[in-house]
Amino acid sequence: MIEKSIFDMLSNDAGITALVSTKIYPMVLPQNYQTPAIVYRNNGIEKRSNYDTISEAFTQTNITIDAISDTYSEVKAVSQAVFDALHNYRGTQSGNVIYSIEQDSYLELYDDGIDVYRSSRIFLINHVD
After folding, report:
1. Can you spell out the DSSP letters for the chain?
2. What is the 3 state secondary structure string of 63-90?
3. Distance CA 72, CA 67 (A)
4. CA-closest candidate to residue 66, choices 94, 33, 26, 34
5. What does the alpha-carbon distance between residue 55 and residue 41 come to, in Å, rounded to a whole number?
6. Dihedrals φ, ψ of 7, to 5°?
7. Would the pLDDT of 113 be above 70?
8. pTM of the entire structure?
9. Architecture of domain 2-127
């Protein structure tokens, strides 16, 4: 499961844990959350037949990772740490062979529903399913 790999990569990165500790959640923030925090979600998968020189079939998964904080400067720092930990990664993580992780898009916003700053990065992950 690629989500396990993403969680492990985020929770084992010293730069990220220095900022958010263990506050890394799938899908939604828990009730009574504290910031800064990270929320990740799988937006969908697509099966592919090959990738450049890779002859075997692979899966491309679209993952959104949100950095959430009470301050703009802190959300920027968490978001950059996420980028640094994931972008251009290649290797094996939690049993998943990952050919590449690339950032697809980036968005900043203020979530006035819960009064926090949010930075969303969408990553495309090419991996063996």
Report:
1. -HHHHHHHHHHT-HHHHHHHTT-EEESSPPTT--SSEEEEEEEEEEEES-BTTB-S-EEEEEEEEEEEESSHHHHHHHHHHHHHHHTT--EEETTEEEEEEEEEEEEEEEETTTTEEEEEEEEEEEE--
2. EEEEEEECCHHHHHHHHHHHHHHHCCCC
3. 10
4. 26
5. 28
6. -55, -45
7. yes
8. 0.90
9. 2-Layer Sandwich (3.30)
pLDDT band at residue 86 under the 50/70/90 scheme: very high
Which pLDDT value is given to residue 88? 96
For residue 117, give Cα distances in angstroms to 31, 61, 65, 107, 112: 17, 26, 14, 11, 8
| pLDDT tens string 8-24 | 999 999 999 999 999 99
Two tokens at 67? 């950095």
Cα 99 to its chain centre, rounded Å, is 16
